[in-house]
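The data layer described in this paper is built around a simple, fixed record for each protein. Such a record has a labelled line for the sequence and another for the backbone structure tokens. For reference, a complete record is included directly beneath this paragraph.
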Amino acid sequence: MERQALDGKSTTEYRTLDNCQCSQCVNQDTKQRNVDTFQLKEEDLKVVDFKETEDKLHVNWSDGHESQHPLSYLYCWFKGAYAKEFGKDQ
């Protein structure tokens, strides 16, 4: 479910972290990103653990950050617009 970018890093991990909407990652007033994920070191992009709840995917990163993603969003992400990128278009 991941694809390697030109630099060898997983685009799935980048997209997952880049789409985190928590207040640490996104200014809640302006909706602008607080973090440039492409400036992160490779070791900051390691998924340590994850769990699925009724409506969200919780991802724990090696830098201590936890991102939360609505399952409905992820479903659309992989079944819809980004499906071709991941070779899953049907």
Remarks:
- The first strand starts at residue 47 and ends at 52.
- The CA atoms of residues 7 and 42 lie 10 Å apart.
- Residues 1-6, 82-90 have pLDDT under 50 and may be disordered.
- The chain has two helices and three strands.
